Structure formats: C-alpha cells, structure tokens
Amino acid sequence: MIARIWHGMVPISKADEYLGLMRSIALPEYLATRGNRGAWCLHRTEAIRRFAGHDFTMAKYYDFDSDYLIEKEAGVRHYEVSSQDSKGPFPIE
Q: Rounded CA gap, 64 and 61, in Å?
C-alpha cells in the first residue's frame, strides 16, 4: 500500500470553507479512485496541551524505543482529522 501525503497552507479566515470543500468534493473524489483505501484531511490550528502537556511539541519515547528506532525525532505535530473511509473489505490487487 502507498500513502500519498500532500501539504498546503490556508489562511485562518478561509480554513472552514476550505475544509468544507475538502469534505464535500476532494475526499469523495479521492475515494472514487480504484484501489484507494481511504482519504484523510489533517488540519491544525491550535495545540493539544491537555494530552501532551505544557511542552506539547516534544516527542515522548519509551525505554524500549532505543532498541528499535534508528532515529528519534525531538518534535511532534498535532492535527485534527477529517476522514471519509472507503468501504471495505479491500481486495488484494
């Protein structure tokens, strides 16, 4: 499976309108593509301090991570997710 990631920036004054267009036009069109297994629009406007704590941009690692991870990023990003999942089951192609 391939994940395609695209990044864009929208002025806050147009964010709700753009997200509405993504939900009503773009995501359904993505899902109509043969073989597509799902589509998500990740967006962010503010931090998630209740979950991540005061320094919400710092990554959290566990003791076992060093045994497996070749690289550990110091920072993280948080997004709100709008999704329209395609209908399963998914045939193997």
A: 8
